[in-house]
């Protein structure tokens, strides 16, 4: 756990001049190609190295059956990362996509949910909502995905998806089929 800065700090987006209060954000990490654990750890380290991002919690790792994926898709490793940030939500999206690219993420045309070395999805950022060509917040499918809800509930049992509901309740509804906590695997959130 890292100390968060003064919660009253208000920072300024250098690009837009917008002011952003500090917000608590959650990203979901996924990998089902290559060295899956190394990619997730790389994403955690990259988030920790991001200015205006203060990582507070890294969830346990889950091995999960591919959802809505090609028939021959391999199992995923999934985890979530909680952090405080003064970045705008679009900057967070950009940062997530840059981290995906740095770990070899490819986007084969016409193949939704193709195997990927690394996926970084922004799940929530405080109670911020977005619905534009680039970004939907809260993430529109997080509430139905045990591979997001189970690791999130482990590190923040009273978490809420704003406008949707409590993560623990959503997880009860969705169930834990297809998700297995891998206590033999560990992400280092402290380095
Ligand atoms: N909350 C969000 N987090 C990440 N990407 C988002 C979000 N909302 C919209 N997007 C958009 O979704 C596009 C496709 O992202 P990506 O290819 O990672 O999807 P995916 O992870 O395969 O599928 P899914 O969105 O179902 O998790 C991105 O280019 C991005 O602009
Ligand atoms: N188990 C699992 N299934 C998925 C995942 C994922 O991270 N884990 N990501 C997807 C698109 O983001 C589609 N399906």
TrEMBL record:
Example of a GO biological process term: tetrahydrofolate biosynthetic process
Single GO term (MF): kinase activity
Catalysed reaction, written as an equation: 6-hydroxymethyl-7,8-dihydropterin + ATP = (7,8-dihydropterin-6-yl)methyl diphosphate + AMP + H(+)
Domain 7,8-dihydro-6-hydroxymethylpterin-pyrophosphokinase: 26-157
EC number: 2.7.6.3
ATP-binding as UniProt keyword: yes
Database matches in InterPro entries: Hppk, Hppk_sf
Pfam families xrefs: HPPK (PF01288)
Keywords: ATP-binding, Folate biosynthesis, Kinase, Nucleotide-binding, Transferase
Pathway(s) it belongs to: Cofactor biosynthesis; tetrahydrofolate biosynthesis; 2-amino-4-hydroxy-6-hydroxymethyl-7,8-dihydropteridine diphosphate from 7,8-dihydroneopterin triphosphate: step 4/4
Protein name in UniProt: 2-amino-4-hydroxy-6-hydroxymethyldihydropteridine diphosphokinase
Organism: Nocardioides mangrovicus
